[in-house]
Structures are given as structure tokens and as C-alpha cells.
Amino acid sequence: xxxxxxxxxxxxxxxxxxxxxxxxxxxxxxxxxxxxxxxxxxxxxxxxxxxxxxxxxxxxxxxxxxxxxxxxxxxxxxxxxxxxxxxxxxxxxxxxxxxxxxxxxxxxxxxxxxxxxxxxxxxxxxxxxxxxxxxxxxxxxxxxxxxxxxxxxxxxxxxxxxxxxxxxxxxxxxxxxxxxxxxxxxxxxxxxxxxxxxxxxxxxxxxxxxxxxxxxxxxxxxxxxxxxxxxxxxxxxxxxxxxx
Length: 244
Hints:
25% helix; disordered C terminus; 7 helices; Metallo-beta-lactamase, Chain A; seven-stranded mixed β-sheet; alpha+beta; 17 strands; six-stranded mixed β-sheet
């Protein structure tokens, strides 16, 4: 399934394979004047992993980006960090088409996805525990439950080999564009959209955000790349951004 859309390499083992929604102008009741981006990620280890999917109408764009790297049917695992439909809207179609060995989500994510999709079969999506790791052979993914950041099902996935934190909506923003990295965007636009998103979605959960930042500190001080589910991937040290 090759096409006009290409994946974007973000590290030795990971690619961005999401979709850009240029047209959306309202989301969760506030203006998305610059559109938005539905981020999904492909991890290339001994086992191939797709982290999250995209809103249903953008399924083909995501699959085309995956196909620019590998045959999507070679994906072994799919991980759902967040069950909201802009990140899971084509999940059941992906399961049917790719037939992955396993699909993982938080326990609350398993329940939420079952509620969204009538054709999700019992046991089809496997719950992971907080702190549990998934061995990919030459890499590891570790899961952290992050309830109410910003849904009860929310969780993070961490790839220590590349210091990538797949952080779903917790550090999100609404911003469409052809550039994938935050350091390619004007700081004024970036901070404006990040502040608007935080104020509308996450402000009531600020104490949880601060606690989460403490638990996600990278001991060897490598640059921690935030791989959001909305907006731009940001390549910088998390501690420096949070300290101002």
C-alpha cells in the first residue's frame, strides 16, 4: 500500500506515521484555528510495534506512511495509549487488516475500547500493568498508567533505548503542518498552542502533571523526546522545558 504519504524518522528505532487534519476548526468545544495532527508511531525492533492509530477518516494516510517503511502486515503488536476516537478511531480496522499478535492497553483502556467498538472481542485487547514492560528482543517498551491525564484510561509508553516517551495527550496541542518537530516551529506559535491546549484540557489536573514529570525523569540526562498524540513531536530535555 504505497502512496503519497511518507513516514518521518524520529530516532534510530522509531518513525512518525500519523496524519494531518488541516480542516478541523473545533475540538472539545474550542477553536482549533491551526488544524491538528493525529500522531501515531512505528517502533522498529526485533518485533515491530504500532503505537496508537488515528481518527477513522485518516486511516489510509497512516497506513500509507507505515507502508513507506515496511509492510503493515509485519507489525506484531499494537499499543493503545488512549482510547479517545482521534487516537483509536481506526483501531478495529487495523486489527482486522493487520492481524497483530497482540493489542495492549491499560485496564481502563480495555474497557473503554470495548465500549467504543461493538466488534471488539473479549480478550482481543490485553491489559498491561503500571510499570510493566514489553520485550521486543533488542528493545523494551515500559508502560506507565496516567489516569486523568486526561482520561481514566490514559497511559504512557517509554522506549529507553532511544529515550522516547510516547505521552498521548498529556503534553498535546492542536497544530497542523508539514514539519514534525517543535524546534522547526516558531516558539510563539508553539507556546501559544501548547498553552491553549493545556488551559482547555489539562489545567484541572495540574497536580497530576507535576507528579508525572517527577516520575518520568531520565536518570542519565539524555534528551527525552516527547512523542505526543496531538501536535508536534518535541526533541528536547523535558526538565529544561518544565523549568522554564
